[in-house]
Amino acid sequence: MKRVLIILILFFISLSASAQLFTREKIKNIENFDKQRLSWGFYLGLNSYDYQFTYEQDQPDILVETSTGFSVGLVSNLRLNDHLDLRFEPGLFITTRNLQYDPVYFEGLEPNSSDLMREVKSTYVHFPLLLKVSTKRFNNFKPFIIGGVSAALNLSSNEENPDDNAAGQFRTKKNVLFYELGFGIDFYNQYFKFTPSIRGVFALNDELVRDEDPNSPWTGNVTTMKTRGVFLNFTFQ
Predict the structure, then answer these.
(1) Residue 107 and residue 166 in contact, taking contact as beta carbons nearer than 8 Å
(2) Which pLDDT tens digit goes with each residue over 6-17?
(3) HEC profile for the chain?
(4) The whole model's pTM is what?
């Protein structure tokens, strides 16, 4: 996930550098777009989710193998003033994570390869409420930062499943709360506004459902397991 974050940051730095080309006054596209009290749009994007673990005892970390997921959602924007907007961006976020356990967790047992790995599929219905803080518009560009809180419903959760890891079922909670921080640039085209943005999301609550056995090698040493992720969104308004 760190490599993805570095690549995305470099991407936006290059966009900011190219934006310096607008130092001379140019014809403004859709000049009155941001004067609307309400505006609407949609976004498509990529996501990379991870887990952050804390542990009861000092043992090898549970390794998280991440993958690139897909995101799609809607945007409703309420203009508060020239520099502040309140946004509601419900969306669907699909991702998969693989957890790899060190054999030390299975001391006294003989684990096979399937015991050492758990696949965690997640389909989040995401409900973020965000405050967007923008700079002054420069010709057809406007940088901004954005942040807020969100709730997510994990449709792939098996929280109610009576089977646990002893039967091969790694369980996660259905409801997750997040805080979010990010930045982006509004590009004003002739007919619409295009906005690439990058955002980090960080869970506030523990997402792990413990096994029945308090000494379970999969969950017994875990104090908290919290989702964190990076979103790259492309918004059209």
Answers:
(1) no
(2) 555 555 555 544
(3) CHHHHHHHHHHHHHHHHHHHHHHCCCCCCCCCHHHCCEEEEEEEEEEEEEEEEEECCCCCCCEEECCEEEEEEEEEEEECCCCEEEEECCEEEEEEEEEECCHHHHCCCCCCCCCCEEEEEEEEEEEEEEEEEECCCECCEEEEEEEEEEEEEECCCCCCCCCCHHHCCCCECCEEEEEEEEEEEEEECCCCEEEEEEEEEEECCCCECCCCCCCCCCCCCEEEEEEEEEEEEEEEC
(4) 0.83
Q: Which pLDDT value is given to residue 18?
A: 52
Domain annotation for the chain: domains and CATH numbers: 2-16+29-236 (2.40.160)
The identity of residue 148, as a single letter, is G
